[in-house]
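Researcher: Structure for this, please.
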Amino acid sequence: MPVLSPEELVDLYIGESNSAATEYDFRKALDLLVFIDKSDSETDVESLKLKIWCAVILRDSWTDMDTDDPLEKSKDTLFYKTIEHAFYDGVDIKDYLPSVQELLSCEQLGDLRHNPSFKYLVKVGYQHIQTILGID
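Model: Predicted structure, token format:
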């Protein structure tokens, strides 16, 4: 049996075949990115990171969320649980997450990226994270 590449391992963690994926699975997938040779022209690490974050977002139903209390509602999402898990493990979150603009424009999110409630929830969450981390 051949050894799986980091990209293939990422797909095992985040793919639809792992329908019970938790924040720990997505975190493991993100942690695998450090093992990818950045000089390898076949693999774009930033695109793979964005793919992971989009996959984590798509595991939750964002369009049905109440936006009256966005922080409270969104903290139950796999997206924010993954961020929280990494934060408590000492990960540098500003390097771990794509920019909010990059995330909201990602085609992998499909129609969700055009949903005003989703955009609002993500932007509020990012602002909250920046406040906690003291990032301008």
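Researcher: Any notable elements?
Model: The chain has a mean pLDDT of 88. Residues 100 and 126 are 7 Å apart (CA to CA).
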